């Protein structure tokens, strides 16, 4: 099946997370209502709000396109906010290490939800990604050591961008509801009801992704970084990007010339029908890949790591799926 061409279909979400670890801090402290919840990014803040509703006050430390979780420098204001939190939600997996630094320095006894662990995507026996969820043959055999490049303390073989996995997010929401219910037993029924509503919305997203398989069967996709990989696989695409390319882009290292040539050939040879472009990691190599996609009439869909203003998690992912659908129609 031919994709719409030339190129750019459905630019999604906000512009990229920027370069280095901005000194921006959490919003000024406001009077809180109910339980205080600190989330590393607005993605997890949105999920928490869906579960807690008016019974909680959520502060997301990263809400801007100019803040990179990998290198974010927490402020004294962030430390104060976290010290007063009842619940802290982090992505984990090496994605937002500043949260662990804050927790180590805090005197708080806050409960913590680690999304990477709660999602079920991180194999507890090996510390790497589960084969069933990553769909990557090489990742199932990955070493368990961490891979630290330019502040990116990744777990080898694990795609830490777990919020792009609907199944993973269901488990994260369950963990949040469980913690809120433990902290506020009088309102446990409310949290469980909100969880049921949120889960129903996630199931709708899963069904939408599954329905795309009729149009994506046999289609390959290229990525500049693994950010949206869970979603692409759920929608039926097969990732054909050389692992060395996306790994180098994610870690901010140079792409070997032979690897770049192999990646560019995906477009010249017609091996892929879609480029999932993460503008957060734009570089000369990713721009060459984008140009190759445009020259060959391959659709480009942009994905980013924080939500656009005015969106919540479900509406954001609905837009992501709509863009993918438009690309294959």
Automatic annotation (TrEMBL):
| Region of interest (Disordered), ranges | 116-150
| Recorded GO MF terms | metal ion binding
Which chain positions lie within coiled-coil regions?
188-215
Keyword list (alphabetical) reads:
Coiled coil, Metal-binding, Signal, Transport
Q: List, alphabetically, the InterPro entries matched.
A: Bact_metal-bind_prot9 (IPR050492), ZnuA-like (IPR006127)
Q: What is this protein called?
A: ABC transporter periplasmic component
Enumerate composition-biased segments (Acidic residues).
Answer: 134-148
Biological process (GO) annotations?
metal ion transport
* Residues annotated as signal peptide: 1-28
Record's superkingdom? Answer: Bacteria
């Amino acid at each position: 099946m031919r994709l719409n061409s030339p190129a750019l279909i459905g630019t999604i979400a906000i512009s990229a997370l920027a370069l280095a670890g901005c000194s921006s801090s959490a919003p000024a402290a406001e009077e809180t209502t109910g339980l205080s919840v600190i989330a590393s990014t607005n993605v997890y803040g949105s999920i928490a709000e869906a579960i807690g509703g008016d019974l909680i006050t959520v502060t997301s430390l990263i809400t801007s396109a100019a803040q990179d979780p990998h290198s974010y420098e927490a402020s004294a204001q962030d430390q104060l906010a976290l010290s007063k939190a009842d619940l802290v939600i982090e992505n984990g997996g090496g994605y937002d290490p500043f949260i662990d630094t804050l927790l180590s320095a805090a005197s708080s006894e806050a409960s913590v939800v680690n999304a990477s662990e709660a999602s079920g995507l991180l194999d507890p026996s090996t510390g790497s990604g589960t084969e069933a969820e990553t769909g990557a043959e090489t990742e199932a055999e990955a070493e368990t050591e961490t891979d630290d490049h330019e502040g990116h303390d990744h777990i080898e073989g694990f795609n830490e961008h777990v919020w792009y996995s609907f199944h993973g997010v269901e488990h994260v929401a369950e963990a949040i509801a469980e913690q809120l219910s433990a902290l506020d037993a009088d309102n446990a029924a409310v949290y469980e009801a909100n969880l049921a509503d949120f889960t129903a919305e996630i199931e709708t997203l899963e069904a939408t992704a599954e329905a795309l398989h009729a149009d994506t069967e046999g289609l390959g996709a290229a990525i500049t970084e693994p950010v949206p990989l869970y979603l692409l696989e759920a929608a039926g695409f097969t990732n054909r990007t050389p692992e060395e390319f996306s790994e180098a882009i994610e870690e901010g290292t140079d792409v070997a010339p032979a690897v770049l040539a192999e990646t560019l050939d995906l477009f010249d040879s017609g091996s892929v029908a879609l480029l999932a472009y993460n503008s957060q990691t734009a570089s000369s190599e990713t721009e060459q890949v984008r140009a190759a996609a445009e020259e060959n009439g391959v659709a480009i869909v942009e994905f980013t790591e924080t939500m656009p203003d005015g969106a919540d998690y479900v509406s954001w992912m609905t837009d992501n799926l709509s863009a993918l659908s438009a690309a294959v129609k």
